[in-house]
Design goal:
There is one protein chain. The protein has 392 residues and is mostly beta strands. Helices cover 0% and strands 47% of the residues. The strands form 12 sheets. A 5-stranded antiparallel sheet has the order 1-2-41-38-39, with no helix packed on it. Strands 3-36-35-34 form a 4-stranded antiparallel sheet, with no helix packed on it. It has a 4-stranded antiparallel sheet with strand order 4-5-8-9, with no helix packed on it. 48% of the residues are buried.
Length: 392
């Protein structure tokens, strides 16, 4: 909310200002309990793919939730297991990397599966994001060897191979903001906990690397408005980090308020104007149910907790619903927690002499009483002019 001085008044300007509210909703669980799965959204469906029922029981199951939260089970993945990466480009959700497989499974908006050209190298523990008309799969490992390879798939599923990451690494994370895809952290041969952030623009040109505040692996990432956020993970000094790195569309880094609980292997997604980080391992054998939400100005709040603490879960968003599915507690879970985004009205207590104008008003109004409470529908666009008074 920008504030400026104008003669005897201080003016507060609001543009599409919202007060987010997250309400938990009941939703049917996954068709199969599993951890280490991955999630993304295509068209009118949120997809939860792969994972493992136990360490010796990999899964190829895909669960789809419509925008009315009805669950279905599309054709299974062609490869089973965890270690997958997933993202969406154009009309396709792409998954690859299960058990170091090079196979890529693509689901269109009707949930029909196809198998585009495979990755250029078999690997797992890679990560994926999308920028412009491309889905990017970066890094990974196989048989103790780390990779710097990046495979790009266009919106027509044509594969190309951009410039590799600046260093080989696995267990990295990725998100996109503005015209950039960011690949951050991970484990590399030279630096066990890498602080490197490799940046690709929408033309797949890799620009000069930037850095995290500290080296990390097992982070999660999501994008909210003008920020890409990287949170949680493991550092050289802590198995359970609470720090958050935020990069704006100019790639300037800021450090928001820490997560309320240090953790690794949580899940992250963004619903409307809230970036959510949920679950994770918070100490040996202890799994948190905490959700941290960051608004568009990076203010943190804590909505209602998950129905059970668990880690190695997955999250994605469909419409106004953020879904957190699967994960591990004492065993693999089929639970899906749903958070519905809505917007509260803006309630203002204004004092005599205050002037204001918001959407739907034909002219500026002035408060005549000593004090008045005004309710403004959100998203709110307009201004308040304060004169020797207080806004609360």
């Amino acid at each position: 909310m920008p504030r400026r001085q104008d003669g005897k008044y201080a003016t507060i300007e609001l543009e599409s200002y919202e007060i987010p509210a997250l309400t938990k909703r009941e939703v049917e669980g996954l068709s199969q309990s599993r951890a280490g799965l991955v999630a993304t959204t295509v068209g009118n469906y949120a997809l939860f793919a792969g994972g493992s029922v136990t360490s010796s029981s990999p899964s190829s199951t895909v669960d789809a939730y419509s925008n009315s939260l009805t669950r279905s089970t599309p054709t299974a993945l062609s490869a089973t297991g965890d270690g997958l990466a997933g993202t969406t480009v154009g009309s396709y959700a792409l998954f690859s990397g299960a058990y170091a497989s090079s196979t890529v499974d693509a689901y269109n908006t009707s949930l029909a599966r196809s198998t585009p050209t495979a990755l250029s190298q078999n690997r797992r523990e890679l990560t994926a994001t999308a920028v412009g008309n491309y889905a990017l799969f970066g890094g990974g490992m196989r048989s103790g060897v780390s990779y710097s390879t990046v495979d790009a798939y266009s919106s027509s599923l044509t594969r190309s191979i951009p410039t590799a990451l600046s260093i080989e690494r696995y267990s990295l994370s990725a998100a996109s903001v503005g015209n950039y895809a960011l690949f951050a952290g991970g484990c590399s041969p030279a630096t066990v906990y890498s602080p490197v952030v490799d940046v690709y623009n929408s033309n797949l040109t890799r620009t000069s690397p930037i850095t995290l505040n500290q080296g990390k692996l097992n982070m999660v990432a999501t994008s909210e408005g003008t920020y890409a956020l990287f949170a949680a993970g493991r550092t050289s000094s802590s198995y359970y980090s609470s720090t958050v790195d935020a990069y704006n569309t100019s790639l300037v880094r800021s450090i928001p308020t820490d997560l309320s609980v240090g953790r690794r292997l949580p899940a992250a997604t963004t619903v409307k104007k809230c970036a959510l980080f949920g679950g994770g391992m918070s100490s040996p054998g202890s799994f948190t149910s905490t959700i941290d939400a960051y608004t568009e100005n990076l203010t943190r709040n804590t909505p209602a907790v998950l129905s059970q603490g668990r880690y190695n879960l997955a999250a994605t968003t469909i419409g106004n619903y953020a879904l957190f599915g699967g994960g591990y507690e004492t065993s693999a879970s089929a639970t899906v927690d749903c958070y519905e985004y809505s917007s509260k009205d803006l309630e203002l207590t204004l004092y005599k002499g205050t002037r204001y104008k918001f959407q739907g008003m034909d002219a500026e109004a002035t408060v005549e009483a000593d004090m008045a409470t005004k309710t403004i529908a959100t998203p709110a666009t307009g201004y308040i002019k304060l004169k020797k008074g207080t806004l609360s």
